[in-house]
Amino acid sequence: MKQIYLDHASTTPVRPEALDAMLPYFGDKFGNPSSIYPLGQAASDAVAEARETLASVIGASPREVFFTSGGTEADNWAIKGFSHANSAKGKHLITSSIEHHAVLHACEALEREGFEVTYLPVDERGLVRANDLREALRPDTILASVMFANNEIGTIQPVRELAAIAHEHGTAFHTDAVQAFGHEPIDVDDLGIDMLSASAHKIYGPKGVGLLYVRKGVKLANLLDGGQQERGRRATTENVPGIVGFAKAAELAAVEMASEHDRQCALRDHAIRRVLAEIPHAKLNGSWESRLAGNVNFSFEFIEGEGMLLQLAARGISASSGSACTSGSLDPSHVLLAIGLPHEVAHGSLRLTIGRSTTQEDMDFAIDSLKATLENLRMMSPLYEDFKQGRAESVIEKLAADGFPYTS
């Protein structure tokens, strides 16, 4: 059976160049970077070189880059570490209602400690409104955290504008850039970012390694106490193979970014146009214009999302209904509810995320399979039968009448 992987926002395969760079550090170059003899210093040099490479991708200084076990750890360190280190200045934080759970749950943990958090709403495309941030800022607001691009609906936020508003009020700005790093141009100085989280396995690097960028002068509590690794702020023996693989994947992503962005945008837009033209009772979720190149997210009426995913999998299509971190949940996506979708529409969501190996043939096969799957599911749906008999209304049609964009 033809197998097509369209869940690159969940994870990506390690590209051969990254794997080749990693392999020596599992074998002949296995030394501990903290050791002073040549075997250890070779590993230390590799970590230092990787730090320089990764810093260059976002326009940072190597001393501003700290390695973590992934994006979740980086988000938690940024939010909790900054809040604990700066609580004397205030205990109010701001974030958005569509953040990854790594951010939302970190904020909820701080609320249990006595911090206050404002969760900004978003518009129907998933965009944070600048005025909402401005109005939420208070004298005791110490941190605003808004993701660079959403992991479910792909919406890219106006980071430069949001960071500037936060800085006008003396508030630090963090962004979860896990989905954007290596896919979108990022210059931390130009955008005014004080802290940034990224992860290797979203850009064809290994799982279990990420980074946190911390602007020089930003006060941040240590994540782990112990030795002097990561300049004493995250004490544990470095994951040298993972760090080396992360750097190689990022280096190649930077080189290929412009061409791959254009190629994936063309595939994305082709898929969106086909679905909206050929599948009734469908809605594109998120912004079409301000969107990650490889992200497509739809909601379909009169079907249940889990059944759709299972039938697509049986046809050889690997896809998801949203974040991989919530794939076991029966609740509708908090992101889709936040952009105003009712539960019955949010439950029928599908995310297709494009990668380096995805072709137009793959996308056409996936859309053809999706059409057949939806026709089959709707044939068995009593709700769809009620709609055809005039006993029920189309919620998506009502959304379109209310001004929601991108519906069919």
Q: What's the number of helices?
A: 14
Multimeric state? single chain
Beta-strand fraction estimate: 5-15%
- How would a textbook summarize the main sheet? 7 strands, mixed
- The count of strands amounts to 12
SSE series:
EHHEHEHEHEHEHEEHEEHEHHEHHH
pLDDT < 50 stretches: none
Structural class: alpha/beta
Distance between the termini: 31 Å
Task: Note the overall shape.
Answer: globular
Summarize the structure.
With 408 residues, the protein is α/β, with parallel strands linked by helices. It has 14 helices and twelve strands.
What's the layout of helices and strands?
Layout: E1 4-5, H1 16-22, H2 38-57, E2 65-68, H3 71-85, E3 92-96, H4 101-112, E4 116-120, H5 130-136, E5 141-145, H6 159-168, E6 172-176, H7 188-191, E7 195-199, E8 210-214, H8 240-278, E9 282-284, E10 295-300, H9 305-314, E11 317-318, H10 334-338, H11 343-346, E12 349-353, H12 360-379, H13 382-388, H14 395-401
Parallel strand pairs: 1-11, 3-4, 3-5, 5-6, 6-7
Antiparallel strand pairs: 2-8, 7-8, 9-10, 10-12
